[in-house]
Amino acid sequence: MADVRNFKPRLSSSRLFSKGSKDLDSGVVDDSVFNRMTSSFEEKKFLTDEVQFEYSAPLIYQLDLLKEDIDDIHSHLSESKFTSKVQKFPVVDVTEEFFVSGLTQLKGNTRIDGFTDIRGAFKVNGTEISDLKKSLDYARALEATGVTSTEFDYLDGVTSNIQTQINNAGGSSFTAAGISGSFTSLSASIATDINNAGGSVDFEKVDSTLAPDGDDTRDLGFGNRQWRNLYLDGTANIDSLSADSFAKPPAPVVTTAATLKSSIVNVTLLHTLVLNSSNALSITGLIPAHSGQELTIMNIGSGAVTITRTSNLAVRTIYHRKGASLTINQHEAYKFVCNPNQVWYQIS
Q1: How far is CA 54 from CA 11, 57, 247, 344, in A?
Q2: What is the mean pLDDT of the chain?
């Protein structure tokens, strides 16, 4: 491979001809002459014409070798741009401006002499440095203060000259007992100030969420000191409800349906199921919410509702000692109750 240091800044050769108005003495050919040369080359007359070949054979041979060299140079210089293969130059001596675009990888030792202008961020050992000047200015300013590496070590330790100076300056106030006592005195002082000022929480104007410090850990009132009335507007999420009595009975949950998604109907949230369909409907089982749940099934549609009953006492089934089905015609209603084993009985 040629040494790039021996590349000439300018070529010694020039073009054999140019195109334009025909002037062969000046090396200018027109389209007719150019087409003649092209046709002669395409017809390989330089090989088939014995007279021409006799005199031009050595030149043709050298031109063919030159063509191979030019192809090698073209492939070598363009391979890095158009393929993933990396070209290696043993020596690169650039005396003028040198432009590189894309990813540049330097392996081995690199020395830069002269001014270097770095635009944007760069990485050192994988760590990005976006403002090198700021870091260098800070390092120079820190170096000018005369801080030693030993003094930096003091900042990173618990027992150090700096820590000792703080302890000596603060005395017992900087000990664990001293700090604890200071906070205790401060807390008592704040509490005294609040009491003297008559401060208290106004529970008639609570402007934030009232919540305990943990889930299922605090009570509201006591067994012998109960709150009187509780006013809520919204949903009361209660795990278990124990009431002496109901001032008003809970409103029954009623739903009306024209179709059933399944013959086994989910009634966990229902007291009354109203069916209104012109087509016949069939119920083979009921999914209860709890033992003792009562459910009324009412038919106001023209289509009959068939309740399949069984004597095998399987869960979610409707029991009948003979396994006879029940038909609910239009404007009829029947009531059922669920036992602890999720078996339903007709009670009316």
Answers
A1: 30, 6, 128, 117
A2: 79
What's the pTM value of the predicted model, to 2 decimals?
0.36
Phi/psi class of residue 167: alpha, beta or left (left: φ > 0; alpha: ψ in -120 to 50)? alpha
Pick the residue with more confidence: 345 or 143?
Answer: 345
What are the φ and ψ backbone dihedral angles of 2, each rounded to 5 degrees?
Answer: -70, 145
- What number of other Cβ atoms are within 10 A of residue 195's Cβ? 10
- pLDDT band for position 129 (50/70/90)? confident
Instruction: Return the structure tokens found at 169.
Output: 């300056």
Q: Which helix (H) or strand (E) holds 143?
A: helix 132-144
Q: Indicate whether 244 pLDDT > 80.
A: no
> Partners of 286 in the beta sheet?
265
Cα separation, 138 vs 195, in Å, equals 52
pLDDT, average across residues 167-174:
57
And the tokens for 6? 């021996």
**DSSP states of 90-112 as a string?**
S-----S-----S-----S----
**Residue 342 in contact with residue 315, Cβ under 8 Å?**
yes
Q: Which helix (H) or strand (E) holds 28?
A: strand 28-29
